[in-house]
Amino acid sequence: MKFIQTMINHKISTMTGTELYKWGKQFKISITKEQADAIAAHLRGKKIDLFDDKQRTQLIKEIAKIIGPKKAKEINELFILFMNSE
C-alpha cells in the first residue's frame, strides 16, 4: 500500500500540464490548458503527500490562488479519486 502511495505522490509531482488537462477532461473537470499548465508547474518537483490531509489542504489552498476556489475544489476531488484508486 505504501508503494502505491509513493507512486501516486511521485506522479503528482512530475505530471505535465497536458496530462492534468487530459485527466480533467476525462473526469469532467473544466480547466483550461493554461490552468493545467500553471498547476503542473506549481506541483513540479515538490515533495507532496496527497494522503496527508494537512499537506493536501495546503496544496489546494495554493492551487485556489492560481485557478480559484471552485476549480481548486474540483482538483481536490480528482486527487481524492487518485488516492482511492490505490
TrEMBL record:
Instruction: Give one Pfam hit by family name.
Output: DUF2624
Query: In its UniProt entry, what is this protein called?
Result: DUF2624 domain-containing protein
Source organism (scientific name): Bacillus smithii 7_3_47FAA
The record lists the lineage as:
Bacteria, Bacillati, Bacillota, Bacilli, Bacillales
